[in-house]
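FAQ

Q: What does a record look like?
A: Structure on top, sequence underneath. For example:
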């Protein structure tokens, strides 16, 4: 597991990160100090001198990193700072990529993480928040030997963190002994953490780098696949079908087409002695002809069950509940609620906006609301339709008081940015999912 720890200067994040890494037997890396290595690259100081002159060197000619730091802090957005950042960022990336490749388990400590491309990686994210700025300034004054006015000025330029991005938030009151408790809680949390992988977000067809709806959740040994639309199995490790539970929200092709690939692979793996237990497949009860077809498939190694509104499914670490929703006259369709590790995740499946009230009630206070958003307002469909717009998805998330909205089920040819912009006008904490995204929830 990769762990990112971040927090403002003086938050105490580095102390905690070091202790956590030691306790877990992970490698600890202070990314800032990785950056310092940039000055050892041949030619880089000459480049820096071209940009900043002799101001960044001591009288004896030695390079002075602090002097450069002062200039960077004072100028921030100047052209020469930008040029210098481009130069060092390239080097930093090579170093960070190397660290991530070489270490399976690593704790990376860096103030700037949320501003980098790495923030989208599958990493367990910890924010260390000082109990008060007074305490933090006191700590910094002791550590950095600078004036309070300077610290306050420096602080104005520091970055703000979005708390909902984090898996764990520590409020640090600088009582060292409490770190042990924090670390114990983090370890317990990590064991139960839900890993969420996106396999498909498009409809009605798959492209080379996209697939129809499918999402994969792991909680410890519990493995749950929500829908498996066309092309989505390409983003799943088909060699590993052990312990797999497949739940289909409704039997439209864009949500279950790949089910037959999974079933046939299970048959083959079983014959090779590489699958010990049957896969479990859970389907709505209708259309009966499709359910019968899946149930009668001989070349597989799976149990097939049906569920309805009253079903409460216990799958290892997770409990699943279902809400019948209107979407198509030809079949039963369900929204699915997954409760695990103290979290609630609601997946809407496909739906009409007429479900708004019932669904908001079903999803009340959920941590993550994964909603279809097939249309944009501009398509001018009637308000009540078989699918919803991004704005309607956002209105539902808002009504449900969900903590976070994840948009999916995009028209395959539409620019996803348009859905995101439309939803954010109504509900700010929204992201648009894309294939191969991974999150710890
Ligand atoms: Zn669909
Ligand atoms: Zn559908």
């Amino acid at each position: 597991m990769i762990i990112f720890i971040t927090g403002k200067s003086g938050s105490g994040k580095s102390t905690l990160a070091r202790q956590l890494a030691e306790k877990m037997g992970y490698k600890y890396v202070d990314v800032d100090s990785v950056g310092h290595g940039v000055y050892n690259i041949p030619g880089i100081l000459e480049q820096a001198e071209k940009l900043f002159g002799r101001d960044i060197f001591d009288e004896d000619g030695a390079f002075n990193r602090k002097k450069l730091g002062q200039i960077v802090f004072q100028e921030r957005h100047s052209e020469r700072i930008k040029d210098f950042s481009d130069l060092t960022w390239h080097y930093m990336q090579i170093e960070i990529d190397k660290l991530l490749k070489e270490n399976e388990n690593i704790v990376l400590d860096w103030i700037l993480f949320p501003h980098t491309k790495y923030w989208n990686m599958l990493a367990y994210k910890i924010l260390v928040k000082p109990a008060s700025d007074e305490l933090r300034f006191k700590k910094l004054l002791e550590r950095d030997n600078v004036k309070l006015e300077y610290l306050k000025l420096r602080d104005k330029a520091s970055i703000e963190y979005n708390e909902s991005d984090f898996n764990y938030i520590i409020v640090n009151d600088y009582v060292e002994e409490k770190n042990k408790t924090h670390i114990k809680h983090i370890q317990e949390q990590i064991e139960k953490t839900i890993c969420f992988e996106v396999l498909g977000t498009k409809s009605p067809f798959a492209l080379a780098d996209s697939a129809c709806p499918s999402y994969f959740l792991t909680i410890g040994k519990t493995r749950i696949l929500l829908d498996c639309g066309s092309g989505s199995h390409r983003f799943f490790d088909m060699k590993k079908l052990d312990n797999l539970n497949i739940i289909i929200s409704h039997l439209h092709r864009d949500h279950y087409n790949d089910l037959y690939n999974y079933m046939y692979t299970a048959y083959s793996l079983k014959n090779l002695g590489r699958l010990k237990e049957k896969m479990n497949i859970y389907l709505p009860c209708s259309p009966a002809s499709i359910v019968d077809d899946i149930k009668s498939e001989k070349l597989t190694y799976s149990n097939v069950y049906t569920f309805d509104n009253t079903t409460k499914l216990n799958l290892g670490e997770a409990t699943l509940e279902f809400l019948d929703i209107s979407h198509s006259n030809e079949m039963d369709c369900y929204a699915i609620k997954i409760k695990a590790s103290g979290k609630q995740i609601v997946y809407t499946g496909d739906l009409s906006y007429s479900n708004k009230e019932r669904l908001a009630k079903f999803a009340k206070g959920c941590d993550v609301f994964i909603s279809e958003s097939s249309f944009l307002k501009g398509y001018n469909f009637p308000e009540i339709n078989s699918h919803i717009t991004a704005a309607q998805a956002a209105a539902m998330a808002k009504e449900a008081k969900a903590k976070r909205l994840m948009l999916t089920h995009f028209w395959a040819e539409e620019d996803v940015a348009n859905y995101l912009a439309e939803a954010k006008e109504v509900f700010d904490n929204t992201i648009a999912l894309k294939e191969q995204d991974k999150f710890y929830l």
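Q: Is there anything notable about this one?
A: Residues 250, 252, 327-328, 350 surround zinc ion (ligand 2) (CB under 6 Å).
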